[in-house]
TrEMBL record:
In the C-terminal section; belongs to the flavoprotein pyridine nucleotide cytochrome reductase family. Belongs to the globin family. This is nitric oxide dioxygenase. SUPFAM superfamilies: Ferredoxin reductase-like, C-terminal NADP-linked domain, Globin-like, Riboflavin synthase domain-like. Residues 142-242 form the FAD-binding FR-type domain. It is an enzyme of class 1 (oxidoreductase).
Length: 403
């Protein structure tokens, strides 16, 4: 694999990503109409996202070509793709259409050498993905787990906590996530963190915040009832506890980023020294105060700080307040830091922590499988300026628990 050739040709293709992706899908469905069933074609809005997801995944791989963690990411991706019923021949068809699309879009930047580099790279990537899928099969893992909803607590109009019982035991480490689907929305999967350490009855909790116009989150929050059966993909992610008991840790959770942080805290024993910053857009969104109090009672060395914007101020002010609070704390060179929440917040805090003294290798957050969620990708810098994407805030009302 020649990273330089791959990156420079990908940079050319990326400038016309929108066209490349359209060409790719047209080529794929024309030559392999049988593959259509694997994509959410019944939901045009989601197909748009699917298009962007493909490019997000490719960009993710391009940025990590030399990263020793890449094979692990690809194995998990392959394992997770079993839920789409992706078979080796589908991978081959996708590869042929991808290269056909890149060749058209790259124009004069495409030649035999570039084509060879892409052919080899795609082969290597899919081999690792297929290996991940094969290993999961060897371990007897199903392509997905059916999971019955056993409890449901609604918090206001736009947030729900679902307890589900998978039909077979789900093996996961606290802090990991699964992708979730409801059977009446075929092909629509979204990642949600598991909000508890493993329990004896095998149930897991999911914290779901409704995204404005979000197909799956709206179905989960508004329609899902006790007794319904959801599908869960294979657990993944690396936001797992890696701090030895003698080292202190800081956990920062915003919004439903509380879910994986709660799972991590449930794992700690009472000798751990930990500080938790819980950020919400307003006090009514601090939806799990009882659980925080129980953890506080069990962990005598846990310090909790709740952060919300000042009354009447926009929700992003909570992030400013968080930064101030973090700046006022000491000991950053000793702490491991775990972050979960809206990607922009995770990015911003992750970039600021080193200036307080936290070494970057001690900052942990998940690289969630790129979802391509949110705004459509701008075609280029000029289009971005002319058609600036709207921030994707949710728009919920009150959060009083209602069962
Ligand atoms: N493992 C992880 O990292 C997990 C991440 N999440 C993500 O967390 C988010 C939760 O959404 P909600 O509960 O509705 O939270 P939210 O939208 O109410 O945000 C809570 C707080 O995060 C900050 N924030 C939100 N968006 C921001 C932005 N663009 N820039 C800077 N700060 C921002 C603000 O301080 C806000 O008060 C989702 O995006 C979800 O995908 C959820 C679960 C696990």
């Amino acid at each position: 694999m020649d990273p330089e050739i791959l990156r420079s040709s990908f940079a050319v293709v990326e400038r016309r990503a929108e066209f490349a992706v359209k060409y790719f899908y047209s080529h794929l469905f024309r030559h392999h109409p049988e593959i259509r069933g694997l994509f959410p074609l019944d939901f045009p809005g989601d197909m748009e996202r699917q298009r962007d997801r493909l490019f997000a995944a490719l960009t993710h791989v391009m940025e990590r070509l030399e990263d020793p963690g890449l094979p692990r990411y690809l194995r998990e991706l392959g394992k997770d793709h079993r839920k789409y019923r992706a078979e080796p021949e589908h991978y081959a068809a996708v590869g042929a259409s991808l290269i056909a699309a890149f060749a058209v879009v790259a124009g004069s930047a495409w030649n035999a050498e570039v084509e060879k580099a892409w052919g080899e790279a795609y082969g290597a990537i899919t081999n690792v993905m297929l290996q991940g899928a094969w290993e999961a099969q060897q371990h007897g893992e199903p392509p997905w787990w059916d999971a019955e909803v056993t409890a449901r607590t609604r918090h206001g109009d736009d947030l729900v906590v679902l307890t589900v019982r998978p039909h077979r035991r789900l093996r996961y480490s606290p802090g990991q996530y699964v992708s979730v689907n409801v059977p009446h929305l075929p092909g629509i999967w979204r990642p949600y963190s598991l909000a508890n350490a493993p329990r004896a009855d095998h149930t897991v909790d999911l914290h779901i915040s409704r995204v404005e116009d979000g197909l799956l989150s709206t179905a989960l929050v508004r329609q899902t009832r006790k007794g319904d059966v959801l599908r869960l993909g294979a657990p993944g992610g690396e936001l797992t506890l890696r701090t030895p008991v003698e080292r202190p840790l800081t956990l920062i959770a915003a919004g439903t980023g509380w879910a994986p942080v709660k799972a991590l805290l449930e794992q700690l024993d009472d000798t751990y020294e930990a500080r938790l910053f819980l950020v919400a857009r307003d006090t009514s969104y601090l939806y799990d105060r009882g659980a925080v109090e129980r953890l506080r009672a069990r962990l005598p060395r846990l310090a909790v700080t709740f952060i919300t914007p000042a009354p009447g101020r926009p929700k992003a002010q909570a992030t400013e307040r968080l930064l101030t609070a973090l700046g006022n704390r000491a000991g950053w060179t000793r702490h491991d830091v775990y972050l979960a929440g809206p990607p922009k917040l995770v990015e911003e805090i992750g970039e600021t922590l080193p200036s307080f003294g936290t070494p970057t290798e001690r900052i942990f957050h998940d690289v969630l499988a790129p979802s391509g969620q949110g705004n459509p990708r701008p075609v280029g810098a000029a289009e971005w300026l002319l058609d600036r994407p709207q921030p994707s805030w949710h728009n919920p009302s009150s959060r009083a628990p209602q069962v």
